[in-house]
Design a protein that fits this description.
The chain has helices at 6-12, 234-241, 244-254, 295-303, 320-338, 340-358, 381-397, 399-413, 420-431, 436-444; strands spanning 26-36, 44-54, 58-64, 74-82, 85-86, 88-92, 95-104, 109-119, 124-128, 134-138, 159-168, 172-175, 178-185, 189-200, 207-210, 213-220, 223-229, 262-268, 274-275, 280-284, 312-313, 417-418, 450-458, 463-470, 478-486, 489-497, 501-507, 514-517, 526-531. By secondary structure, the protein is an alpha+beta fold. It folds into three domains: 23-121 and 138-197, Immunoglobulin-like (Sandwich); 312-444, Neutral Protease, domain 2; 450-531, Immunoglobulin-like, CATH 2.60.40. It has an eight-stranded mixed beta sheet, with no helix packed on it. A five-stranded mixed beta sheet has the order 16-17-18-20-19. The chain is elongated. The chain starts with 5 loop residues before the first helix and ends with a strand.
């Protein structure tokens, strides 16, 4: 996800509620959402057929589902059935509780049919696009799916999904998975059915209904790549979004097989700059420029198809496994295409943002203090600092081991959920070294090293003395590269820092003209270098 319009997002965040947590009584196996859209008003009609596995003996189960608010917006349940048997239910405080006539046993499966209607408070954005045309776009992240869909609105509960959309025939429909049906119905209505067999978290389940121009951008093997843009901007949009066909192969080659059967890049009304919905990425409607400056955003959202969508964080505090990964994978794609100088420039810019953010907010990357209003986690720690952790891990392990570890982590958790410790253990297994200290200091503790380096040269002894002090409150352990410059000649030396003050002496035939600390941008730190004369 690319952050965008955050002021607006913080306004709507008050409507977000804490989602159903892991350990609930059910595991959703499959959703089928029948959705009816209209041009007459903003009321949607829904029919959800939800197959669940019972995880413990119970006579009731619950879904996250928006109740009506004071303005009359929200969802109203009409009926709930199981095998033609009407079930009792209560709907209050954004929770739908369904009661069974008899206890449901652990391990049993049940299929619940929920009929409902209402005007979405959020989650499904019904509005006019910038050309004045009516549109419908789902925008579920982080836990806004329950504003229009009965579901378990938490990333740990993943399920396959079908969307069957009935809408006025002038709309084209995009959704997750593959289109299996388009049928014209009486009254100028069209029914479109999409099927996604791969299990998804609700945050990336979507539909989009608008007037679109659609272009087949190409393919990578059996993966079809499409661009869906407003007709008024089809030439610019096809040009910009067409970059996806060059980006997808990089991640397939470096990470593993693409987890879905298609990739659609869609111009939309998402409140984010880009939203990584599985196989149907939504970009803000102003993203189309006609100059391909969207390349980094495309790479970021495409990287999410592996990290966040397929290998999904177990809970929100581990969101760096999604956003930090997408941030750094974007940088690696650009490094591969444009060279190491591009990576260095981007990492230095990200480092500045991390340092500036740490002076305002003193929290670790894995932030357990946020238990609702998860938009707060769209911050520099999750994105840029998470990316920097991966960068330092890459330098610590070396490129071959780093990529081997990334591939193992993805292979182990594709289609599943993982947390930070799962990732650590995957990297330890291929790197054959203990990474507990590395993960603890960079991910579970706030801040980064603040260093002061002072050096002087004794010409008589032909000896340089270098003193490096850690000025921050807690101590970090890390290697740092020093570079001594003699005109056009450069000599590098790596030193290990783990004490409050570290002193090194180097025998040198002559005085360097300059000494640099971390010249290649491999360490997340702030600091200065001073020569003592």
């Amino acid at each position: 996800m690319q952050k965008y319009l955050l002021a607006f997002i913080f306004v709507i965040s008050s409507a977000l509620v804490q989602s159903q947590k892991p350990g609930a009584a059910i595991d959703v196996l499959h959703y089928q959402f029948g959705i009816e859209l209209s041009d007459e008003n903003d009321t949607i009609r829904g029919n959800a057929v939800i197959e669940v596995k019972i995880l413990k003996d119970t006579n009731r189960i619950s879904f996250d589902f928006a109740s009506k608010n004071e303005s009359g917006k929200g969802m109203n349940v009409i009926s709930i059935n199981e095998k033609d048997q009407t079930l009792l239910y209560t709907q209050a405080h954004d929770e739908l509780t369904i009661r069974f006539a008899e206890n449901a046993k652990k391990g049993a499966t049940k299929t619940i049919n929920i009929a409902y209607k209402g005007i979405p408070i959020d989650g499904l954005i019904i509005s006019l696009n910038k050309y004045g045309h009516r549109t419908f776009f789902a925008d579920n992240w982080p836990d806004r799916a329950h504003q229009w869909l009965p579901c378990v609105d938490h990333p740990s509960d993943k399920a396959a999904v079908d969307f069957i959309v009935r809408a006025p025939e002038h709309y084209q429909i995009i959704s997750n998975g593959m289109e299996t049906e388009v049928t014209n119905l009486p009254g100028h209505i069209k029914q479109t059915h999409y099927e996604e067999k791969v299990s998804l978290p609700t945050k990336v389940m979507v539909i989009g209904a608008a007037d679109f121009a659609v272009n087949y951008s190409g393919d990578d093997g059996c993966i079809q790549i499409y661009s869906w843009v407003y007709p008024e901007e089809k030439e610019k949009g096809f040009y910009d979004y067409g970059l996806a066909k060059n980006i997808l192969p990089f991640f397939i080659d470096h990470v593993g097989p693409y987890p879905y059967r298609k990739l659609a890049n869609v111009q939309s009304k998402t409140t984010f700059g880009g939203m990584e919905n599985a196989s149907a990425i939504f970009y803000n409607e102003n993203s189309v420029k006609g100059d391909q400056t969207i390349e980094a955003v495309l790479a970021h959202e495409i990287a999410h198809q592996w990290f966040g969508n397929s290998a999904t964080e177990t809970d929100w505090q581990h969101i760096w496994l999604s956003e930090g990964f997408a941030t750094y994978m974007t940088n690696l794609y650009l490094e591969n295409k444009y060279g190491p100088d591009t990576l260095l420039t981007r990492m230095k810019d990200d480092r500045k943002q991390v340092i500036a953010y740490s002076k305002l907010i003193t929290k670790p990357v894995v932030d357990t203090s946020v238990t609702n209003n998860f938009v707060q986690l769209l911050n520099v720690n999750s994105y840029q600092k998470g990316g920097w952790v991966l960068h330092m891990l890459r330098r610590k392990l070396g490129d071959d081991i780093f990529w081997k570890g990334i591939r193992k982590y993805y292979a182990d958790y594709a289609g599943r959920n993982a947390d930070t410790e799962d990732f650590r253990m995957a990297m330890e297994s291929v790197g054959r070294q203990d990474l507990k200290q590395f993960f603890r200091q960079w991910l579970y503790l706030p801040g980064q090293p603040e260093l002061s380096l002072a050096w002087n040269y004794d010409a008589a002894k032909r000896l340089a003395t270098i003193t490096i002090k850690q000025l921050q409150e807690g101590l970090f352990e890390f290697p740092v590269e020093l570079e001594l410059i003699y005109g056009t000649k450069r000599i590098s030396k790596s030193v290990l820092i783990k004490e409050k003050t570290s002193v090194f002496t180097l025998p040198l035939a002559s005085k360097p003209t300059q000494l640099l600390m971390d010249p290649k941008g491999n360490l997340l730190f702030e600091g200065e270098v001073k020569e003592i004369k």
